[in-house]
Design brief:
This protein has two helices and no strands. With about 110 residues, the protein is mainly alpha-helical.
């Protein structure tokens, strides 16, 4: 029956359902991906900052432990310098290995 849609008693419900469906479709295609991206950025930054803090604390603890170990064989002043030399050498070797594994753009 192709009559006047305003005389149909269900047209407000149908119109509201269509508008709600359209709004939810637009929200799913725009807002939801942006929320996921924002969460990924926030959690990534948080994990990065906590990772950096953990590495720094690990290096400080390793330096102090090595100083205490070397103090058994050397004086305290020499143990401090030796620990810096040992950990600095290990970090330099690690950096050299990572540098050797990098790929050139050619």
């Amino acid at each position: 029956m192709a009559g006047n849609p305003l005389k149909d008693p269900d047209w407000p419900v149908q119109l509201a359902d269509r508008i709600e469906g359209l709004v939810s479709t637009v929200r799913e295609k725009t807002t939801t991906p942006v929320v996921h991206i924002a969460r990924a950025v926030v959690y990534g930054l948080l994990a990065g900052l906590l990772g950096i803090a953990a590495v720094v604390l690990l290096l400080v603890a390793a330096t102090r432990a090595l100083q205490s170990l070397l103090e058994l064989f050397l004086s305290w002043d020499r143990a401090v310098y030796a620990s810096y030399l040992v950990l600095g050498g290990i970090l330099c070797l690690g950096g050299a290995l990572l540098l050797a594994k990098r790929h050139s753009p050619d």
